[in-house]
Amino acid sequence: MTSPRAREAPPLPVLAMTLARAAVPLWGVFVQDWSASRQLLMYWIDTGMSLVGAFSVVLLRFLPRPDSASELVNTVGGALLGGLFLAAVTMPVLGLPLLFHAPLATFARLAVSDPAFSKALITHAGVLCVMMIWVYADRDVCAREASQARDRFVFAFVRWIATYLVLVSPLATVSGWSLRIAVLAYIALGVWQELAPHRLHAWIDRVMPPAR
Q: Of the candidates 23, 25, 49, which has an alpha carbon nearest to the alpha carbon of residue 36?
């Protein structure tokens, strides 16, 4: 049975990060009309940022508990840097499916030749880093996130692979709305993860029971 605390409304920083995570993909697809390749690169980076969050909360469990606001900022910042390093090591593996869609040089040209697209990717990653510091400065949120880190890893990986398969399939070329539906589905899953985490974690626990 789900505890009352598991069902409480997410705190403001979590809601703000959820909205920030949705802003750039929506702008890119609906305003800039991003192609499937651009979307794939965007989602790969977003998945990497999800891993940064999951790694960071795991690292925070092993760091000394801060006694002051300044120590808290230093602790969260250190965990975030560690999360960025671990995600950087993991992301090349997650990016291997991209090579089945197009050569690495193609994705590099997308980022280099389109300044607006490059700025969007950098803005997305930078804003999420700032938001994570805000979110994980709340000790209660951090403790909850640490207990659910495994499920966040699973969710980020499954959503990335599912999104990749949709965008490289013929469905992505059926109509102009296919890519728009894909970004809405991607964002909806992320919102569901943040606003109803107890449902996500209960579902993952049924599929992959945690070790006893």
A: 25
Q: Tell me which DSSP letter residue 172 carries.
A: G
At 2, the pLDDT band (50, 70, 90 cuts) reads: very low
Contact 42, 99 (CB under 8 A): no
37-46 confidence digits (pLDDT tens): 899 999 999 9
Q: Which two tokens stand for residue 194?
A: 């943040």
Which residue, chain included where needed, has tokens 């919102």?
A: 191
Nearest Cα to Cα of residue 41 among 108, 88, 86, 89? 108
Q: What letters, b where the CB count within 10 A reaches 16 and e where it falls short, cover 27-39?
A: ebbeeeebbbbbb
pTM: 0.84
